[in-house]
Amino acid sequence: MKYEVYSGIIIRSDYSTFEFMSVGLNGKIPKRIQFTETPWPSIYNLAFGNNKENGDLDDLSISNNGDRNKILATILKAVEDYTDRFPERFVFFSGSTEHRTRLYRMAIGLHFEELSSKFEIYVDVNGEWDFIPFQKGLNIKAFLIKRKFTKFGL
Fold first, then answer.
1. Is this prediction's pTM over 0.90?
2. Residue 1 and residue 136: Cα distance in Å, rounded?
3. Are 108 and 120 in contact (CB under 8 A)?
4. Minimal CA–CA distance to 23: which of 41, 35, 5?
5. What distance in Å separates the CA atoms of residue 134 and residue 10, rounded to the nearest whole number?
6. Sign of the alpha-carbon dihedral angle for 68, 128, 139, 2
7. 46: nearest Cα among 152, 145, 131, 134
8. How far is CA 40 from the centre of its chain?
9. Which has the least CB within 10 A, 16, 73, 144, 145?
């Protein structure tokens, strides 16, 4: 993705949490990207949303801060950093709403060539954890990605 990324990201030492400030039309809004274990070995859930004052993550609010592409690029940067640190882990995500899942599908489809050079990208189309390789035009329920291993670091 060739979009600007937010700077000043605060990364927890175990790489489980990335926090940054969205700056836009509605002011400064604290955001959080969080990676948590799932019941499945080597699969970690990616959650994203507003960082509430009480420490909760609000993944349903709509900020309309005018910085959608910058936020998506920042999430990708966090995924790249996370999978650099833990290349053996899969990252699972879906939107908190159908609209957000569609947004992720469109962003991945638009940048598929670049993303697929770094990641294996799988999708679930039936909601039953039956993942297949990403293809444009599918009605996607969830995503599962993993950093590609390269031979001799090339």
1. yes
2. 17
3. no
4. 5
5. 31
6. positive
7. 145
8. 18
9. 16
How would you write the pLDDT of the chain (154 residues) with one tens digit per residue?
689 999 999 999 999 999 999 999 999 999 999 999 999 999 999 999 999 989 899 999 999 999 999 999 999 999 999 999 999 999 999 999 999 999 999 999 999 999 999 999 999 999 898 999 999 999 999 999 999 986 555 5
The residue among 65, 72, 137, 80 whose CA lies nearest residue 107 is 72
Give the DSSP letter string of 26-91: TEEEEEEEEEEE-SSTTEEEEEEEEE-TTS-EESS-----S-HHHHHHHHHHHHHHHHHH-TT-EE
Contact 36, 45 (CB under 8 A): yes
Q: How is residue 113 annotated by DSSP?
A: H
